[in-house]
Structure to design on (79 residues):
């Protein structure tokens, strides 16, 4: 049975969308920065004394993996 506990990255994550006047993210880099900033703001306990955050880095890596999977499925669907 799947774990029903809420994900540390919830659907209620506050995102700073001031990157553009329309509120839309202009690039992957901006989206990645917004996610990183939101995670660090909402979970300061994840930030080590030296400023590193392995937990945030793990989420960023997983996000990149999921984007790659999504893009490969999109390419397959378009073919």
């Amino acid at each position: 049975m799947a774990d029903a506990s809420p994900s540390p990255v919830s659907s209620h994550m506050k995102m700073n969308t001031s990157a553009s006047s329309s509120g839309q993210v202009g690039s992957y880099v901006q989206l990645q920065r917004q996610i990183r900033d939101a995670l660090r703001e909402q979970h300061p306990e994840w930030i080590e004394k030296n400023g590193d955050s392995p937990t945030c880095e793990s989420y960023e890596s997983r996000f990149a993996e999921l984007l790659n999977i999504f893009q490969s499925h999109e390419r397959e669907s378009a073919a």
Summary: Residues 13 and 38 are 7 Å apart (CA to CA).
